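Entry 12.
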Amino acid sequence: MKPDGCIENVTAVLAAHMESGRLPGYVTGVSIAGQRRVHAACSLAVDGDAPMRPDTLFRIASLSKLVGAVAALILVRDGVIALEDDIARWLPELASMRVIRQPDGPVQDSDPAPRPIAVGDLLTMTAGFGLVLAPGPLQSALVSEGLMPGAFPPPFSHDEFVARLGRLPLAQAPGEGWLYHTGSDVLGVLLARAAGRPLAELVSERIGAPLGIAELGFHTDAPERLATAYTAGLDLLDLPAGRFSRRPRFQALGSGLVSTVPGFLTFLEMLAGGGAPILDSAAIELMGTDRLTGHQRASAERFLGPGRSWGLSCEVVLAREQTALPPGSFGWMGGTGATAYVDPGHGLAAALFTQRAMETNRPPVAFVDFWDAVYR
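Predicted 3D structure (tokens):
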């Protein structure tokens, strides 16, 4: 595989998506064995004049989860936390959790959780809380408390978030099944408390600085470089001067980071290359390996789709079912319109950032075409 051939295939495929109006613009990057190519096309906004550039900033949404996994593994390596630790050590609000008896039953009808939630449960999305898709009292309570996962971080502080979460029962017992998203936001609160510093400082000093990534943060001071965000129907979702142009109350590892494609490609190159200079290869292997039991994997498949499982805060490819990504690849997608994976077997890292949000939790056509073009 050659990066020049990959990027030529990608730009040819994505040109059709722009001509049809499906994509207002994009920035993409492909790196193979350390050789990288980055390409930007079209404009920052629908009908806008400002062009996309390699240094354009994007809301990377759930790609933030990958950064959270690396931050957690750094603290594991430092001996600050361990994957088997009870999260109540840092999050007493989530001690003595209860489990709802019936998925569609009243939230008051619950039993004590059979075991505590471990740090590793947050990373594998098996803590018992997360995206509840079935209508019912628990889903209604999550909505009313502002705890339902979405494209943007919660509108309150870390302390308020875990306090609200602790007042509700778990949807499942810890370790019983897989539920998306909330574990990453809880992980962010835990990491900040364990490290004794704001999450933004932890990400910047332990990940951004050693990798030379200038822009990997929870907001930007340069909103003029931030692409306008749109829904899947290309209705306005967020303006450059919107919520990511100011410091958030909640620094979210579930969906809260902004970055550029070259910056995030550097992060992906670290993963594809074995973790240096911030982690060792054993930590990266742990992150990118299927961590689910058979029962957990079956529950995750309803969300992830066939041929996919979950490692530590990232999707793990088990089979070529949905895209051309081969088994052994790992990464994830961002609901605001981003896809990024690494393929260690080919020394490959690639990302596509767009302004158009995903319509469902499955890869949109543009993402499928993108990965087909990379591997063609």
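Annotation: The radius of gyration is 20 Å. The chain has two domains: 3-73+198-375, 80-194.
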